[in-house]
């Protein structure tokens, strides 16, 4: 029996390998919007930080965040061909769907970008809730769960950042952390998520089999 009836995925850093692209463009955006550039030596520390700590370090006021996000989405749209899915993602999504688990996406990116990157895998998703603000994922989670008509105890959110963990907690959802995204994996795992995935293949294996290492 599946461990959960609904899995809500993040996009960037979870399904899509966008971190290398992000590092290539972030300093161009920094110069455009007047915040601190990211030096190579900064990257490890920023991966261990939460969203508010990152904004403070870079000197980004909250009022600029929506404008920066809009710019990043537009830049990403121009480079979608250079930003692949992580290996094994299409197979993983099909395995979840075939195993009886409903799949949704909650992302800060636009739905158009998400659908373009997912390609044929778009058909595995029953719901898209995109354009989430930096701290707006909890509300998107709650609306997605209501639309699905599934109890929160039967839902898991899967992501790669501390803010994904925090949003899941605020929405009273279980959280599954991944070891391959934007956040430092040791720092994210130290938050004690209900599930931890070392590889993409772990996700269907653990969720469809209801493995006991999932803490509910």
In short:
By secondary structure, the protein is of the alpha/beta class. The chain is 43% helix and 12% strand. The chain has helices at 19-33, 43-47, 51-58, 65-77, 89-98, 111-118, 137-148, 162-170, 185-189, 202-209, and strands at 6-9, 102-106, 127-129, 155-159, 174-178, 195-197.
Structure description:
This protein has 216 residues and is an alpha/beta fold. It has two domains: 6-17 and 84-209, HAD superfamily/HAD-like (Rossmann fold, 3-Layer(aba) Sandwich), CATH 3.40.50; 19-82. Helix content is 43%, strand content 12%. Strands 3-2-1-4-5-6 form a six-stranded parallel beta sheet, sandwiched between helices. α6 links the parallel β2 (102-106) and β3. α5 packs parallel to α10 and α7 crosses α8. It is globular, with a radius of gyration of 17 Å. The two termini are 15 Å apart.
């Amino acid at each position: 029996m599946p461990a959960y009836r609904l899995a809500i995925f993040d996009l960037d850093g979870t399904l899509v390998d966008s971190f290398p692209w992000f590092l290539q463009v972030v300093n161009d955006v920094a110069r455009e919007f007047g915040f601190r550039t990211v030096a190579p030596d900064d990257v490890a520390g920023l991966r261990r930080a939460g969203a508010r700590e990152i904004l403070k370090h870079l000197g980004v006021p909250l009022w600029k965040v929506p404008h920066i996000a809009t710019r990043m989405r537009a830049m990403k749209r121009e480079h979608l061909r250079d930003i692949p899915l992580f290996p094994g993602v299409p197979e993983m999504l099909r395995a979840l769907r075939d195993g009886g688990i409903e799949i949704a996406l909650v992302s800060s990116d636009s739905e158009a970008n998400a659908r373009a990157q997912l390609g044929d895998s778009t058909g595995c998703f029953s719901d898209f809730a995109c354009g989430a603000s930096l701290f707006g994922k909890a509300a998107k989670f709650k609306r997605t769960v209501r639309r699905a008509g599934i109890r929160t105890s039967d839902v898991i959110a899967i992501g790669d950042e501390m803010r994904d963990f925090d949003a899941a907690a605020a929405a009273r959802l279980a959280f599954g952390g991944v070891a391959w995204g934007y956040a430092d994996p040791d720092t994210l795992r130290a938050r004690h998520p209900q599930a931890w995935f070392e590889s993409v293949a772990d996700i269907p294996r653990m969720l469809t089999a209801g493995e006991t290492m999932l803490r509910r």
